[in-house]
Amino acid sequence: HVREVVDRFGPNPRVVGIQVTNEVNLSISPDSSDGSYAGARDALIKGVEAAKDEARKRGFSQLEIGFNWAYRGDPSSEQSFWTYLRDHGGPTFVRSLDWVGVDAYPGTVFPPEDTPGGERDALVNAFSTFRCYAAIPAIPKTVPIHVEENGYPTGPGQRTYARQAQSMDTMVHAVNDFRGTFGISDYRWFNLRDGDTTSPNFQQQYGLMTDEYQPKPAFGLYRQLVAQLGARDSGSPSAPARLVLGVSCRRGHWRATLRGPDVARVRSVAFRVGNRRARVDSRSPFGRSISARRLHRGRSHWTLKARVTLAGGRRLSLYRTVGRCG
To answer: Could you read off the pLDDT of 258-284 as tens digits, one per residue?
Structure first.
């Protein structure tokens, strides 16, 4: 079946991705997630491998293959899921992946506490948790994250239209701020319109519009955020810069390096560890990389931050968590 789907849609150059299965790690929701069904883990592994193999054979180079993960199940279930991918998928499965999706609903699904502003920390935890679990089957950090589902429903009580817009603004900016840290390349809001705006069940009201396509305030906000933060093409001055903040340890000191194909667009950069500003190594030409050395000695669990100003004045921040060095 998977090969048939690839053969049917792969010739269309605008079909650029196929997701195999849905939220196999989640076994408590049979109406929305595949993890409740027997053989789902094997279907995920074999389906991803078959899809990638067929796309390669047919020369559909634009077609990328992935699966998605729901943030999150209980720790024992998660450990079982990722260990199964390691033991039954292995290198063949990992080599077949072009991306992995993350589905996260702070304040609605997990964590359930609806605290304004708390969505930012929740998403950071979702992405860092994913990278930790993904290391079990050896999915490398070069495999990007697609934020497949992220949203906040309106509804009775405190779930007002204004609260939805506030939550959206927090979450979209969090994803943009940490995309370099966790390797996030795509973002999608769930959902365009409500299933039933009159329902007392808020799960029917994730939309940016009502069920009659009347825009909520979040609809206009989302358009603004897409215009401000979305990539049109890699050569556009407004496109997000493709930069990576790397760290390495040598002789008891961390060294930070900002690198990537868009480093030449960087006008200035400041590295900080905690409250300390690090010296930029001027010997590293901006066309290749920008480095800072001797960031700290012997401390643990610092947040390394690179504040970057691009040509044209646009600013962005990249973050990495660093531990004890030497």
So the answer is: 777 777 778 788 877 666 676 665 444
Q: What are phi and psi of 54, to 5 degrees?
A: -70, -40
How many residues can be counted in the chain? 326
Show the tokens assigned to 322: 């660093």
Rounded distance between C-alpha atoms, residue 32 and residue 167, angstroms: 23
For residue 300, the SS3 value is: coil
Position 301 pLDDT exceeds 70 = no
Cα–Cα dist 120/181, whole Å: 14
Token look-up 């293959």 returns: 65
Q: How many CB atoms lie within 10 A of CB 204?
A: 17
Residues in Cβ contact with 59 at an 8 Å cutoff, skipping those fewer than 6 apart? none
Tokens of 166: 């506030």
Q: Whole-angstrom Cα distance, residue 34 to residue 23?
A: 6
Are the CB atoms for 292 and 255 separated by under 8 Å?
yes
